[in-house]
């Protein structure tokens, strides 16, 4: 019998940006990261990460909320508890309804689910991908978060680190940023390709018009051209007429995510382990996506712990999916990945060391630490 979880420490970091990042949701003025360290009664530990990018200052709320709800969510649990994300949501079900906050609670449960898996794999002396059913391998990756106005510099910097696939933001600014995207594609070297992300900016008619314009660019995919909760019929209409595959999933949960896979609107399925589902639910979703002939591509935007955990899941699940590596300014991503963001032979490597393979250097980022709260479970 594995020892129960005894303590949780919530580390809240923030990196303030000199120049805000423009997004469809508004300006991003800082990069937050919320890391979770769980320790069991025998001193074994594991790390997880809680999604907290939006709304502005939503990271403050989640840091406080995590300290309040984790003692209930994790009481009596061990690293061997089956389907921990589902169990935590079951325990917090009434609170979620009463508070009207399914998102933040699910994001905290997701981080705890990841930390439990890391703890279990460290105890077993195996890499995280092994207890998820796979073997350590390097996973192909792409550089995301390319912004209009910064694209040339971002692409050059990521290219120097081995990246050959780049994803640019569109859906805002003059002409929805499409002329910028077209210039980026025209600037690519031989063997390089792009995908675009509209972050839910368009309605069906606009999306159809924009995708017609973009068809000659040879994109790998078009991501979230419609709101994630647009009628399935709209997604299917768009997918049928589009000259490129559609991608999405970071804003879908539960039955909506299952339906998106089953209906076939999305070719690239992009759940986020830190936002909904942790590793236990997302592994099921990813396997269902592969079984339905889709491609699992982890969505990720945060600090390095979630990135490396996403890489382990991708390695374990298999398929032709690509790891999303954000190229916007964020030392919390590169430092907490344990190895920086550079690719080796075109892929993001994973070693055989237990768990994630390292401990995030939280002491080294003390100047960006907003708070560290420890609670007894
Ligand atoms: Mg996206």
Quick gist of this model?
The chain is α/β, with parallel strands linked by helices and 377 residues long. It contains 13 helices and 13 strands.
Features:
alpha/beta; Enolase-like, domain 1; TIM Barrel; nine-stranded mixed beta sheet; four-stranded antiparallel beta sheet; 13 helices; 13 strands; globular
Structure description:
The protein has 13 helices and 13 strands. Strands 4, 5, 6, 7, 8, 9, 10, 11 and 12 form a 9-stranded mixed sheet that branches. The relative contact order is 0.17. Helix 2 runs antiparallel to helix 4 (102-124) and helix 11 (278-291) runs parallel beside helix 12. It is 38% helix and 21% strand. Strand 4 (139-146), helix 6 and strand 5 form a beta-alpha-beta unit. The mean pLDDT is 96. It has 377 residues and is of the alpha/beta class. It has helices spanning 58-74, 84-91, 93-99, 102-124, 128-131, 151-160, 178-186, 204-214, 232-241, 254-263, 278-291, 304-317, 331-336; strands at 5-23, 26-40, 45-50, 139-146, 165-169, 193-197, 222-223, 246-248, 268-269, 295-296, 323-326, 347-348, 369-376. The two termini are 18 Å apart. The chain folds into 2 domains: 5-127 and 360-376, Enolase-like, domain 1 (2-Layer Sandwich), CATH 3.30.390.10; 130-348, Enolase-like C-terminal domain (TIM Barrel). Bound molecules: magnesium ion (MG). The site of magnesium ion (MG) has 5 residues, from loops. Magnesium ion (MG) binds next to loops.
